[in-house]
Amino acid sequence: MRDSPQPRLWRLDASALWKVALGLVLGGALLIVAARGIDLAQVQAGLARVDMLWGGLASLSVLLTTAAKICRWYALFPSEQRPAVLLLARALLVGQMANALLPARAGDIARAYLAGIEDDTYAATALGTIAVEKAFDVLFLLLTGALAAGMTSLPAWADWTLLALSGAGLVVFLGGLAWTTEPILAWGQRWLARHPGQIGDWLLGLLRRFGLGLRSLRDLRVVLFASAWSALVWTLAAGTNFLLFRAFGLPFSFGAALFLLMVLHVGIAPPSSPGKLGVFHALVVLSLEFLGVERSLGLAYGALLHAIVYLPQIVLGAISFVHVRWQRERAA
After folding, report:
1. What residues make up the domain containing 88?
2. How far is CA 167 from CA 128, 162, 257, in A?
3. Measured at the alpha carbon of residue 328, what is the angle toward residues 327 and 332, in degrees to the nearest 5?
4. Directed axis angle between helix 120-151 and helix 198-214, to 10°?
5. By C-alpha distance, which of 212, 210, 189 is closest to 201?
6. What's the burial of 279, exposed, middle or buried (CB within 10 Å: 0-12/13-18/19+)?
7. Residue 21 CB-half CA count within 13 A
8. Rounded Cα distance, 276 and 265, in Å
9. Which of 192, 195, 242, 251 has the fewest CB within 10 Å, making it most exposed?
10. Per the structure, how many domains does the chain have?
């Protein structure tokens, strides 16, 4: 095993600190907007009415969602280049923590690096599998929008908008899936082959290993397995929302849970505040208000949902990061 240099993402330079500070300001402003005109005593009363059994089941659903994500990622690796499940679990947990706390989706690069910590060839392949994983998430986000439109009592214009966007996005996704990546990879290999040398050979090997990670899109068996795991991931994630509805005594259907999940995934995708502080809460308040929930109760729901989703990511990610660092120092 080569001793890989520590990646830049573990160091917070001045630029990164400015981005974090700006994100905190943005999140704080959105949190103030979300809480505007709300009596905090009513928020506290809303939290006091939570049924702890349903709340505990919602927390368990978050952990099961993470476990399903680990299994899906493992299934996307080529059979001859699969890292150990425990290694992938630690990498994904650290990546989730980094995505929660750092800007620009740094966690995806972090977990690709950590997946290859025992064998450098894994890192590029892992990055390809993460790209495939994101494609499946886009597909199931579109399906979630379509299901939410069919299962939730939304205004007609909202139903048609969701169905139209889901249909158009599905067509684009399937078109992209049918458009093979081989010509791009072949062009890259030909170009790099004309530039021999240590760097050119390294980049050529990197490109080939990245292509290995994308290869799962051409394997029907892998696609079926990944689709099944993705369906479980998204069902469990929506189940967290649904179980928390029950904890607050909100009589909403599973379709409403899908609707909230879709809004949150779209809304928190752009870089924003660490932990999506404020952004997450504002999205929940607006979504539940759209469904007829009073804003103080919506903020109470959003605060608890934020805690049970992000606290495990940060705590488990920190434990995994410390364990990885300890292993590296021990092996050095």
Report:
1. 39-331
2. 26, 8, 20
3. 120
4. 30
5. 189
6. buried
7. 7
8. 11
9. 251
10. 1
Contact assessment for residue 141 and residue 127, using Cβ atoms and an 8 Å cutoff: no
25: in domain: no
The two structure tokens encoding residue 254: 């599973």
The helix/strand/coil state of 50 is: coil
CA atoms within 13 A on the CB side of 239: 16
Quick: pLDDT tens for 120-164. Answer: 557 778 888 888 888 888 888 888 888 887 777 766 666 677 677
Distance CA 175, CA 152 (A): 29
Find where tokens 């928020």 sit.
43
Element (H, E) at 247: helix 220-247
pLDDT band at 194 (very low <50, low <70, confident <90, very high): low
Between CA 230 and CA 204 the distance in angstroms is 31
Claim: this prediction has a pTM higher than 0.85:
no
Domain contains 20 = no
The answer to whether residue 2 is domain-embedded is no
Q: How far apart are CA 194 and CA 40, in angstroms?
A: 66
Residues contacting residue 174 through CB under 8 Å, at least 6 positions apart? none
Whole-number Å distance between alpha carbons of 248 and 189: 56
Among residues 260, 249, 270, 256, the alpha carbon closest in space to that of 302 is found at 260
Contacting residues for 1 by C-beta, under 8 A, at least 6 apart? 118, 119, 120
Is 274 domain-assigned? yes
